[in-house]
Amino acid sequence: MPTCTEDPSKEPEPIKLSALSNVSAGRQVPLVELSLQNVTYAPLTTKASSNGKTSGRKRTTVLQNITTTISPYKLTAWMGPSGSGKTSLISIAADLTKSGDLVEGSIITVNGEEGKIPKRIVGVVWQDDLLLTNLTVEENIYYSARLKTPESCSDEQVSAVVLETMIELGLTDIRNSVVGSPLGVVRGVSGGERKRVSVASELVVRPSLLLLDEPTSGLDATTAQALIGTLKVLSNMGHSIAVVIHQPRTTIYNMFDHLLLLSQGSTVFNGNPSKAREYLESCPIVGELPPETGLADWIMDVIKEDEQRREAAMLASHWAEYINKESVHSMISDSLRKTLSRSMSSLHELHAVPKFNNSFRTQLKLLTSRTMKQQRGERLTMTAVILQLLYLFFSAVL
């Protein structure tokens, strides 16, 4: 998260409108490696009776003994068919599970400390865009930054970070365009641009850990590849990034540094994406990759065929046997791990930052301003305005 140690009265230095690699030269991202070890997740779900009414709650295990790592300077992909537990894994990594849900296992940082990573340094981009339709691209990113950055930061400093983020994600040309709605009720930017605005709204506070749920969903192949390419560059800056993705084209698949394959809540592969084919072809129930077949397409077909077997699925049990026999090393080399360990922040240091960056008064002021801009162009009665302000007040209090 950006810090403002400079005198707010000083004029901020102008940002050079240069290439992404140059913009990142002064970037400060606390390096965090998140390791999940033997994590099992069983959320509470509502049971439905035959008459359509609810009949109590039950636990449903959606993830079993998941072990994987999200590392700085690595772009990680989580792949698997629908219902394999990919989105649930995001909730666990971001500590967004609900009260009453069962989470077993360990969440450990690179230096061996067990504990939860502060939510302040975690950014999550969900599949459904959470953007304000009547705000411009720059306004959406600005309010996200202003609400999350320390109150000591001046508007000029926040605007400078917003500009830097828009440059990184190629949004400067549409900075004054209204975002609009996906269904076209309010005309705005394209689907690919909306995704980049969503990423920018989280990236603007420089999260150490960035998790994205199906960011390429609904995008054409070219736009999807451009977005993943941007995430690849961001991972090279030190962000730990994990992407939930269903069935990427080969050029996108080759951008990933680490791959976790899931099937019905269990791991079927965890490691270097370039080794996935060799490993799967070594399984007795899997044939060779057919000619002229995309690797990611073949992987998904293999997993789906295994799930449809009448007897128990074999891929998960084969992986469990494999890791018991083999010495599976971390994706980070020893030399890089030593470098990371020296530059890693401890959990104590990460938790030392105050929980709230802004006072209640400042939050209320920002939320009111944002709501008024969201409602511009619409006919509001005084009653509607008052109700909106009351809603903001009680939301901030509670």
Ordered list of secondary-structure elements with their pairings:
Elements: H1 20-23, E1 34-42, E2 44-48, E3 54-59, E4 63-70, E5 75-79, H2 86-93, E6 102-109, E7 122-125, H3 137-148, H4 155-168, H5 191-203, E8 209-213, H6 221-235, E9 240-244, H7 250-253, E10 258-263, E11 266-271, H8 276-281, H9 295-307, H10 315-325, H11 334-343, H12 347-351, H13 360-374, H14 382-397
Parallel strand pairs: 5-9, 5-10, 7-8, 8-9
Antiparallel strand pairs: 1-4, 1-6, 2-3, 10-11
What characteristics describe this protein?
globular; 398 residues; Rossmann fold; 3-stranded antiparallel beta sheet; alpha/beta; 11 strands
The side-by-side strand order for the widest beta sheet comes to 7-8-9-5-10-11
> Helical segment tally?
14
Q: How many distinct folded domains?
A: 2
Shape: globular
Structural class estimated from helices and strands:
alpha/beta
CATH-scheme architecture of the largest domain: 3-Layer(aba) Sandwich
The name CATH uses for the topology of the largest domain is Rossmann fold
Q: Please, what is the average pLDDT?
A: 81
Count the beta strands.
Answer: 11
List the uncertain runs. 6-25, 328-336
Alpha-carbon Rg, integer: 23 Å
Distance between the termini: 24 Å
Quaternary structure type? single chain
Order of helices and strands: HEEEEEHEEHHHEHEHEEHHHHHHH
Report on the biggest sheet: 6 strands, mixed
**What would CATH call the class of the largest domain?**
Alpha Beta
Superfamily at the CATH H level of the largest domain? Answer: P-loop containing nucleotide triphosphate hydrolases
Percent helix, as a range, is: 25-40%
Portion in beta strands: 15-25%
Subcellular location: Membrane
GO molecular function: ABC-type transporter activity; ATP binding; ATP hydrolysis activity
Main location: membrane
Protein name: AAA+ ATPase domain-containing protein
